[in-house]
Protein backbone atom coordinates (compact mmCIF):
# COMPACT_ATOMS: atom_id res chain seq x y z
CA UNK A 1 0.00 0.00 0.00
CA UNK A 2 1.47 3.38 -1.02
CA UNK A 3 2.13 6.07 1.59
CA UNK A 4 -0.15 9.12 1.39
CA UNK A 5 1.94 12.24 0.76
CA UNK A 6 -0.24 15.42 0.60
CA UNK A 7 2.72 17.62 -0.41
CA UNK A 8 3.46 15.38 -3.37
CA UNK A 9 -0.25 15.29 -4.18
CA UNK A 10 -0.49 19.10 -4.29
CA UNK A 11 2.62 19.31 -6.49
CA UNK A 12 1.26 16.73 -8.94
CA UNK A 13 -2.20 18.30 -8.94
CA UNK A 14 -0.80 21.76 -9.57
CA UNK A 15 1.38 20.37 -12.36
CA UNK A 16 -1.63 18.76 -14.05
CA UNK A 17 -3.86 21.83 -13.91
CA UNK A 18 -1.10 24.27 -14.86
CA UNK A 19 -0.24 22.13 -17.90
CA UNK A 20 -3.91 22.00 -18.90
CA UNK A 21 -4.14 25.77 -18.44
CA UNK A 22 -1.14 26.31 -20.72
CA UNK A 23 -2.50 24.08 -23.50
CA UNK A 24 -3.42 27.12 -25.66
CA UNK A 25 0.27 28.03 -25.99
CA UNK A 26 0.88 24.59 -27.49
CA UNK A 27 -2.13 24.54 -29.82
CA UNK A 28 -1.44 28.06 -31.08
CA UNK A 29 1.88 26.72 -32.41
CA UNK A 30 -0.14 24.28 -34.53
CA UNK A 31 -2.76 26.74 -35.76
CA UNK A 32 -1.67 26.35 -39.41
CA UNK A 33 -3.09 22.81 -39.23
CA UNK A 34 -6.90 22.32 -39.24
CA UNK A 35 -8.34 21.38 -35.85
CA UNK A 36 -9.76 18.06 -37.05
CA UNK A 37 -6.37 17.06 -38.42
CA UNK A 38 -4.69 17.96 -35.13
CA UNK A 39 -7.20 15.75 -33.31
CA UNK A 40 -6.66 12.85 -35.74
CA UNK A 41 -2.91 13.04 -35.15
CA UNK A 42 -3.44 13.47 -31.41
CA UNK A 43 -5.45 10.24 -31.31
CA UNK A 44 -2.69 8.45 -33.25
CA UNK A 45 0.21 9.61 -31.08
CA UNK A 46 -1.74 9.17 -27.82
CA UNK A 47 -2.61 5.60 -28.80
CA UNK A 48 1.03 4.80 -29.61
CA UNK A 49 2.46 6.35 -26.45
CA UNK A 50 -0.30 4.81 -24.34
CA UNK A 51 0.57 1.38 -25.69
CA UNK A 52 4.19 1.90 -24.64
CA UNK A 53 3.20 3.07 -21.15
CA UNK A 54 0.91 0.09 -20.66
CA UNK A 55 3.96 -2.17 -20.93
CA UNK A 56 4.98 -0.78 -17.53
CA UNK A 57 1.47 -0.91 -16.02
CA UNK A 58 1.39 -2.78 -12.70
CA UNK A 59 -1.71 -4.80 -13.58
CA UNK A 60 -0.85 -6.62 -16.84
CA UNK A 61 -4.14 -8.58 -16.97
CA UNK A 62 -6.38 -5.51 -17.02
CA UNK A 63 -7.46 -6.29 -20.60
CA UNK A 64 -8.90 -9.68 -19.58
CA UNK A 65 -11.21 -7.97 -17.12
CA UNK A 66 -12.24 -5.56 -19.85
CA UNK A 67 -12.98 -8.29 -22.42
CA UNK A 68 -15.07 -10.09 -19.81
CA UNK A 69 -17.37 -7.05 -19.68
CA UNK A 70 -18.43 -6.10 -23.24
CA UNK A 71 -20.66 -3.33 -21.92
CA UNK A 72 -17.55 -1.59 -20.64
CA UNK A 73 -16.13 -1.51 -24.16
CA UNK A 74 -19.32 0.21 -25.32
CA UNK A 75 -18.97 2.72 -22.47
CA UNK A 76 -15.34 3.40 -23.38
CA UNK A 77 -16.26 3.83 -27.06
CA UNK A 78 -18.80 6.45 -26.03
CA UNK A 79 -16.21 8.07 -23.76
CA UNK A 80 -13.75 8.17 -26.65
CA UNK A 81 -16.31 9.88 -28.86
CA UNK A 82 -17.02 12.50 -26.20
CA UNK A 83 -13.29 13.00 -25.62
CA UNK A 84 -12.63 13.50 -29.34
CA UNK A 85 -15.52 15.98 -29.55
CA UNK A 86 -14.11 17.85 -26.56
CA UNK A 87 -10.63 17.95 -28.12
CA UNK A 88 -11.97 19.12 -31.47
CA UNK A 89 -14.10 21.94 -30.03
CA UNK A 90 -11.31 23.08 -27.71
CA UNK A 91 -8.57 23.12 -30.37
CA UNK A 92 -10.86 24.90 -32.81
CA UNK A 93 -11.89 27.47 -30.17
CA UNK A 94 -8.28 28.21 -29.21
CA UNK A 95 -7.13 28.71 -32.79
CA UNK A 96 -10.27 30.64 -33.77
CA UNK A 97 -9.80 33.27 -31.06
CA UNK A 98 -12.51 31.96 -28.72
CA UNK A 99 -10.40 31.11 -25.70
CA UNK A 100 -12.51 33.28 -23.39
CA UNK A 101 -15.58 31.18 -24.18
CA UNK A 102 -13.53 27.98 -23.82
CA UNK A 103 -12.44 29.07 -20.34
CA UNK A 104 -16.09 29.74 -19.48
CA UNK A 105 -16.86 26.12 -20.39
CA UNK A 106 -14.37 24.77 -17.88
CA UNK A 107 -15.54 27.20 -15.20
CA UNK A 108 -19.10 25.89 -15.45
CA UNK A 109 -17.99 22.25 -15.80
CA UNK A 110 -18.13 21.50 -12.01
CA UNK A 111 -21.66 22.90 -11.84
CA UNK A 112 -22.68 20.86 -14.90
CA UNK A 113 -21.46 17.81 -12.97
CA UNK A 114 -23.73 18.76 -10.06
CA UNK A 115 -26.66 19.13 -12.45
CA UNK A 116 -25.93 15.76 -14.11
CA UNK A 117 -25.84 14.17 -10.67
CA UNK A 118 -29.32 15.56 -10.02
CA UNK A 119 -30.84 14.56 -13.37
CA UNK A 120 -29.10 11.24 -14.09
CA UNK A 121 -28.04 9.85 -10.72
CA UNK A 122 -31.06 11.25 -8.84
CA UNK A 123 -28.77 12.86 -6.28
CA UNK A 124 -30.31 15.39 -3.94
CA UNK A 125 -28.80 18.86 -4.03
CA UNK A 126 -28.14 20.87 -0.92
CA UNK A 127 -29.43 24.44 -0.76
CA UNK A 128 -26.08 26.02 -1.51
CA UNK A 129 -25.64 23.70 -4.48
CA UNK A 130 -29.00 24.89 -5.85
CA UNK A 131 -27.82 28.48 -5.42
CA UNK A 132 -24.51 27.71 -7.18
CA UNK A 133 -26.29 26.14 -10.17
CA UNK A 134 -28.76 29.06 -10.32
CA UNK A 135 -25.92 31.60 -10.39
CA UNK A 136 -24.19 29.66 -13.16
CA UNK A 137 -27.44 29.54 -15.14
CA UNK A 138 -27.79 33.29 -14.66
CA UNK A 139 -24.29 33.78 -16.08
CA UNK A 140 -25.11 31.67 -19.15
CA UNK A 141 -28.39 33.56 -19.66
CA UNK A 142 -26.43 36.82 -19.39
CA UNK A 143 -24.17 35.59 -22.19
CA UNK A 144 -27.17 34.64 -24.34
CA UNK A 145 -28.85 38.00 -23.76
CA UNK A 146 -25.74 40.05 -24.45
CA UNK A 147 -24.47 38.26 -27.56
CA UNK A 148 -27.92 37.27 -28.84
CA UNK A 149 -26.87 33.64 -29.14
CA UNK A 150 -26.11 30.54 -27.10
CA UNK A 151 -22.47 30.23 -25.89
CA UNK A 152 -22.28 26.83 -27.57
CA UNK A 153 -18.52 26.46 -27.26
CA UNK A 154 -18.67 26.77 -23.46
CA UNK A 155 -21.76 24.58 -23.10
CA UNK A 156 -20.42 21.92 -25.49
CA UNK A 157 -17.06 21.69 -23.70
CA UNK A 158 -18.71 21.51 -20.27
CA UNK A 159 -21.36 19.05 -21.49
CA UNK A 160 -18.91 16.69 -23.22
CA UNK A 161 -16.56 16.68 -20.26
CA UNK A 162 -19.41 16.31 -17.77
CA UNK A 163 -20.97 13.30 -19.52
CA UNK A 164 -17.49 11.82 -20.03
CA UNK A 165 -16.84 12.01 -16.30
CA UNK A 166 -20.30 10.65 -15.50
CA UNK A 167 -19.74 7.54 -17.66
CA UNK A 168 -16.30 6.99 -16.16
CA UNK A 169 -17.82 7.22 -12.69
CA UNK A 170 -19.94 4.17 -13.53
CA UNK A 171 -17.00 2.09 -14.80
CA UNK A 172 -14.19 0.39 -12.90
CA UNK A 173 -11.43 0.80 -15.50
CA UNK A 174 -8.29 2.59 -14.27
CA UNK A 175 -7.47 5.94 -15.86
CA UNK A 176 -4.49 4.97 -18.03
CA UNK A 177 -5.91 1.72 -19.49
CA UNK A 178 -9.25 3.48 -19.97
CA UNK A 179 -7.73 6.35 -21.93
CA UNK A 180 -5.59 4.02 -24.04
CA UNK A 181 -8.59 1.86 -24.93
CA UNK A 182 -10.59 5.00 -25.78
CA UNK A 183 -7.89 6.25 -28.13
CA UNK A 184 -7.47 2.82 -29.73
CA UNK A 185 -11.20 2.63 -30.34
CA UNK A 186 -10.93 6.05 -32.01
CA UNK A 187 -7.86 5.04 -34.03
CA UNK A 188 -9.78 3.54 -37.01
CA UNK A 189 -11.76 6.79 -37.32
CA UNK A 190 -8.60 8.91 -37.16
CA UNK A 191 -6.76 6.72 -39.68
CA UNK A 192 -9.85 6.66 -41.89
CA UNK A 193 -9.99 10.46 -41.92
CA UNK A 194 -6.30 10.70 -42.82
CA UNK A 195 -6.74 8.10 -45.57
CA UNK A 196 -9.69 10.03 -47.05
CA UNK A 197 -7.63 13.25 -47.01
CA UNK A 198 -4.31 12.32 -48.66
CA UNK A 199 -3.56 15.98 -49.32
CA UNK A 200 -3.76 16.85 -45.62
CA UNK A 201 -0.87 18.98 -44.37
CA UNK A 202 0.49 16.26 -42.07
CA UNK A 203 0.60 13.69 -44.90
CA UNK A 204 2.90 15.76 -47.10
CA UNK A 205 6.39 14.12 -46.84
CA UNK A 206 8.15 17.47 -46.39
CA UNK A 207 6.01 18.23 -43.33
CA UNK A 208 7.85 15.66 -41.21
CA UNK A 209 11.09 17.55 -41.74
CA UNK A 210 9.78 20.63 -39.92
CA UNK A 211 9.71 21.66 -36.28
CA UNK A 212 5.90 21.68 -36.37
CA UNK A 213 5.97 17.94 -37.08
CA UNK A 214 7.90 17.31 -33.88
CA UNK A 215 5.44 19.44 -31.95
CA UNK A 216 2.56 17.43 -33.36
CA UNK A 217 4.28 14.14 -32.54
CA UNK A 218 4.52 15.38 -28.95
CA UNK A 219 0.72 15.54 -28.73
CA UNK A 220 0.66 12.06 -27.19
CA UNK A 221 2.86 13.19 -24.30
CA UNK A 222 0.97 16.50 -24.07
CA UNK A 223 -2.24 14.50 -23.64
CA UNK A 224 -1.05 11.78 -21.27
CA UNK A 225 1.46 13.54 -18.96
CA UNK A 226 -1.02 15.89 -17.21
CA UNK A 227 -3.56 13.06 -16.97
CA UNK A 228 -1.00 10.82 -15.29
CA UNK A 229 -0.04 13.66 -12.90
CA UNK A 230 -3.72 14.08 -12.06
CA UNK A 231 -4.14 10.34 -11.55
CA UNK A 232 -1.15 10.16 -9.18
CA UNK A 233 -2.29 13.30 -7.33
CA UNK A 234 -5.67 11.66 -6.70
CA UNK A 235 -3.87 8.93 -4.73
CA UNK A 236 -2.48 11.46 -2.26
CA UNK A 237 -5.27 14.04 -2.00
CA UNK A 238 -9.01 13.93 -1.35
CA UNK A 239 -10.94 14.26 -4.61
CA UNK A 240 -12.67 17.37 -3.27
CA UNK A 241 -9.26 19.02 -2.76
CA UNK A 242 -8.44 18.34 -6.40
CA UNK A 243 -11.78 19.93 -7.19
CA UNK A 244 -10.59 23.23 -5.73
CA UNK A 245 -7.42 23.09 -7.82
CA UNK A 246 -9.36 22.64 -11.06
CA UNK A 247 -10.10 26.38 -11.31
CA UNK A 248 -6.41 26.97 -12.07
CA UNK A 249 -6.74 25.71 -15.66
CA UNK A 250 -9.61 27.95 -16.89
CA UNK A 251 -8.10 30.92 -15.04
CA UNK A 252 -4.82 30.50 -16.92
CA UNK A 253 -6.72 30.10 -20.21
CA UNK A 254 -8.69 33.30 -19.51
CA UNK A 255 -5.56 35.25 -18.59
CA UNK A 256 -3.76 34.04 -21.72
CA UNK A 257 -6.77 34.96 -23.86
CA UNK A 258 -7.09 38.51 -22.53
CA UNK A 259 -3.52 39.51 -21.73
CA UNK A 260 -1.46 37.49 -24.21
CA UNK A 261 -3.70 37.01 -27.24
CA UNK A 262 -5.74 40.22 -26.88
CA UNK A 263 -9.16 38.59 -27.06
CA UNK A 264 -11.99 41.01 -26.15
CA UNK A 265 -13.37 40.83 -22.61
CA UNK A 266 -16.02 43.52 -22.31
CA UNK A 267 -18.17 44.51 -19.28
CA UNK A 268 -21.02 42.27 -20.45
CA UNK A 269 -18.71 39.24 -20.45
CA UNK A 270 -17.32 40.30 -17.08
CA UNK A 271 -20.89 40.36 -15.70
CA UNK A 272 -21.55 36.83 -17.00
CA UNK A 273 -18.24 35.52 -15.64
CA UNK A 274 -18.94 37.21 -12.30
CA UNK A 275 -22.13 35.17 -11.97
CA UNK A 276 -20.19 31.99 -12.76
CA UNK A 277 -17.43 32.90 -10.29
CA UNK A 278 -20.04 33.62 -7.61
CA UNK A 279 -21.60 30.22 -8.28
CA UNK A 280 -18.19 28.53 -7.99
CA UNK A 281 -17.54 30.36 -4.72
CA UNK A 282 -20.84 29.15 -3.30
CA UNK A 283 -20.13 25.63 -4.59
CA UNK A 284 -16.66 25.67 -2.98
CA UNK A 285 -18.02 26.91 0.35
CA UNK A 286 -20.70 24.20 0.31
CA UNK A 287 -18.08 21.53 -0.46
CA UNK A 288 -15.86 22.77 2.36
CA UNK A 289 -18.74 22.87 4.87
CA UNK A 290 -19.87 19.38 3.87
CA UNK A 291 -16.33 18.01 4.24
CA UNK A 292 -16.06 19.66 7.64
CA UNK A 293 -19.35 18.13 8.82
CA UNK A 294 -18.30 14.71 7.53
CA UNK A 295 -14.94 14.99 9.31
CA UNK A 296 -16.61 16.01 12.60
CA UNK A 297 -19.03 13.07 12.44
CA UNK A 298 -16.26 10.59 11.66
CA UNK A 299 -14.06 12.12 14.38
Which tags fit this structure?
299 residues; mainly alpha
Question: What is the CA-CA span between the terminal residues?
Answer: 23 Å
The global form is: globular
Number of helices: 14
Q: Estimate what percentage of residues fall within beta strands.
A: under 5%
Q: List segments where confidence is low: pLDDT < 50 over at least 5 consecutive residues.
A: none
Please give the radius of gyration in angstroms. Answer: 20 Å
Work out the helicity level. Answer: over 70%
**Average predicted local confidence, pLDDT:** 85
* Order of H and E elements: HHHHHHHHHHHHHH
Structural category: mainly alpha
**Tally of separate domains:** 1
User: Main β-sheet: number of strands, strand sense, barrel status?
Assistant: none
Q: What's the total number of strands?
A: 0
Subcellular location: Cell membrane
Pfam family, one: EamA
Family: Belongs to the EamA transporter family.
Organism: Corticimicrobacter populi
Amino acid sequence: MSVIDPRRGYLLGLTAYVLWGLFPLYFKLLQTIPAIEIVAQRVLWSALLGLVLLQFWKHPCWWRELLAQPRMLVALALCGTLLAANWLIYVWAVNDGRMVEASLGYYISPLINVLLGLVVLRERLRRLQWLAVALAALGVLQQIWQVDGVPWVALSLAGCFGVYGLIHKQTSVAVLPGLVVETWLLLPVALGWLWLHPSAATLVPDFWQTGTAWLLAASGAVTLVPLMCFNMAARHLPYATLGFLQYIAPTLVLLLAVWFYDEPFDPAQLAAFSCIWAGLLVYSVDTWLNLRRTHQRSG
